Amino acid sequence: MATTEAAASAGLLLPPVTAEDTARSQDRSRVHHARGHSKRWRLLWLLVGPGILAMLGENDGPSMIAYASDGAQYGLGFFVPFIPVLFAMAFVCQEMCMRVGAVTHRGYGELVLQRFGRAWGWFGAGDLALTNLVTLVAEFISIRVGLAYFHLGAGVAVTLGLVLVLFTLSGGRYWRWERIVLGLALFNGLFLLAAILVKPHVGALVSSLAFSPFPGGSFNTLLLLLASTIGATVTPWMIFFQQSASADKGMTPRDVAHGRYDTAVGAVLAAIFGVGALIAGAALLTHGGSGIQGFAGAGFPQALGHVAGSAAGGVFALGLIEAGAVAILTISASTAYAAGECVGVSHSFNNSPRNATVFYAANVGVALLAALVILIPGAPLLSIALNANVLATVLLPVGLVLMVMLANDKGLMGPWANKRSTNAIGVAVIAFVGLCGAAYGIDSFLLSVHLIGS
Amino acid sequence: MNTEAPVMNDAHQGSPIRERDLQPQERFEDELIMHLERDQFVAETSRPVPRVALSARATAGLWALRVFVVLVSLMVIYTFIDQLH
Prior knowledge:
The complex is a heterodimer of chains A (454) and B (85). Chain A has helices at residues 4-9, 19-36, 40-47, 50-58, 61-74, 79-104, 108-116, 118-148, 154-169, 174-185, 190-197, 202-207, 219-231, 236-249, 256-282, 299-308, 310-343, 357-374, 381-407, 410-413, 420-448. Chain A is mostly helical and 454 residues long. Chain A has a single domain (39-210, 222-248, 255-448), classed as Up-down Bundle (Amino acid/polyamine transporter I), CATH 1.20.1740. In chain A, α4 packs parallel to α15. Chain B has 85 residues and is mostly helical. In chain B, 56% of the residues lie in helices and 0% in strands. Chain B has three helices and no strands. At the A-B interface, α1, α2, α7, α19 and α21 of A face α1, α2 and α3 of B.
């Protein structure tokens, strides 16, 4: 991990420098300056990004709808403490991604492909392409639902999403892309504002911290709730995104501590805003969860508007637009990173579209494909949105196992390899996610083919 | 200290700048790249890491998990299509 200065003083020939290196070194020079002058807050400001974006990006449209639906159908009990627990699990996984990216300077896709063989790399990329496409469709639906509250249609949703993707890609710099998306992501706090506007009962909030009452209903419904709520916090795209973004940002082992702060802040903010959506949704509980059936239209914000006032409905609708927009940017980016890494070509925001054609084409292409789906008349948008999180949960365990293996690889990680305690927590997270996803998949299938009764 | 300037691949391609104007810019970029770790350069990260030899048990475990996940995914997709009807 010698710096180029050390290499130069040792008489070693420096590697050839590309425009991508020059762009990254400009960002790194600011980090070195802040570190050298003990400017702690400036250093933190420079190094935050991938962790907050991964966490708030996962507070996407389907996730916020899932939290609000949990609240509307089951109230606050169980889910208020459950959501922070899930984000604690997400922190464990994402911290490993950040650490591997900072130490190896390589993305998840290329490391899996090179270290474990092409089959595993392409399997991972295939899983990611499938779940990302389905999730991106759900993000456009989320924007459409939010805009419908303001009497705007699917065409505006598609245009807004695609224009945002093109605008953020236009700078040819990672730093610019990251700061624009970070700025947008902070508006995830609209869900907290929506929660305040519905004026929740503080006593009910406090008593819900005891994980009770446990949600009732059928076993399959409970499994669906668990699988979709887990899928709302930990997903395959987050793994690809944070590791690749950490490498693209130019993070090094010296930045791992700040990477942890970044990921922790992201997890805390995402948990708070997620609970905000849950509390806002819980305002519909006494109305029998009315409104969520009209999801494909403007059901949720409108129902909230009727129950808690037009301000709450409007803020929730704006929150859905923001959640969908930020997720479109981060999920498209994760697809682009994976495509570039697996094909073995340039995969960096610090490179120009001419030099990183596959990266930019995948970024725009996957968003465009998802946008076209929501324009198909009669497409089952509601089912797609609700199943996006479940599919992500089911496919996640393989990706997590490979991530734990990478984080334990002493040949790659050296002294930054996982500690025993991290492995124990990581294995527990994988087992929990795997069991919930598999139980829902198998139970639903058996119900569908009438091998068991509901 | 080795003062040899690094090779500039594509940063200056096609720019008709006179040498005396180019020098400060080159110096600036030389100083800049000192902030990158050697293994951060594109030339270094483009070099693949060696493949690790997984034990037979690990390989079998990964394949078993892979097949299981594909089967459960197919069940979820079947249920999704079934619910559409």
